[in-house]
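step=encode ok
step=design start
structure_in=
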């Protein structure tokens, strides 16, 4: 009987990769890229082999190409399965699906092994690709508040406090919206970012009167002044 690993390899090569290329992504095997001049918009296959089956899921990431070049990290492009800290956004596919939870597909020997591959392709077509396109478009056209150099200065200060960097700063609805890989449960980040918000508000910029913090899935975390 053909092993689960052999079926997985065949499915990725003969079904998954051609289907993603038909959707407009380039790549092969485990990493695929949406062509764009300014961003690395990526889909990566995360594989977890077990003795009798192969489990896999999808990792997604969006990284500004200039940020990647400036980072000095090795490689022509990021690997969406790896967290570097320079990404604009990253997520697992389950966070985009209606279940909003971790999702793994399984390939087992047997007549229905291709169902998992078909489901993964459908998840890319209906959820991953539209979200990547939306984020690329917004990142390109959104009204930014800080220049790259100014944002680097703020992030250097956050680094000294061991707080994740600000990935994006935008103006929307009289608010300054700051996005980063923060968690509502992180009290240290909240306290440090409160001070950052007070600094922005003290500038007296008439374009905003509130500072909103959100995580990389655009879930609101904190609002200052409270």
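sequence_out=
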């Amino acid at each position: 009987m053909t092993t689960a690993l052999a079926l997985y390899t065949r499915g990725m090569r003969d079904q998954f990769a051609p289907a993603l290329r038909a959707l407009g992504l380039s790549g092969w095997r485990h990493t695929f890229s949406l062509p764009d001049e300014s961003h690395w918009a990526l889909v990566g296959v995360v594989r977890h082999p077990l003795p009798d089956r192969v489990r896999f899921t999808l990792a997604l990431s969006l990284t500004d190409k200039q940020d990647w070049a400036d980072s000095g990290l090795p490689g022509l492009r990021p690997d969406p399965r790896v967290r570097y800290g320079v990404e604009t956004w990253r997520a697992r596919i389950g966070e985009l699906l209606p279940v909003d939870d971790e999702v793994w597909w399984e390939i087992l020997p047997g007549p229905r092994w291709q169902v998992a591959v078909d489901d993964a392709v459908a998840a890319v077509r209906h959820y991953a690709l539209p979200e990547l396109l939306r984020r690329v478009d917004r990142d390109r056209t959104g009204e930014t508040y800080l220049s790259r150099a100014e944002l680097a200065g703020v992030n250097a200060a956050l680094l000294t406090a061991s707080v994740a960097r600000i990935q994006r700063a935008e103006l929307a609805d009289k608010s300054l919206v700051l996005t980063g890989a923060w968690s509502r449960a992180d009290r240290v980040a909240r306290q440090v970012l409160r001070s950052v918000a007070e600094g922005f508000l003290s500038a007296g910029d008439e374009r905003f009167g509130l500072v909103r913090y959100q995580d990389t899935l655009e879930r609101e975390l904190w609002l200052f002044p409270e």
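step=design ok
step=annotate ok -> The helical segments are 4-22, 65-71, 114-141, 148-160, 187-202.
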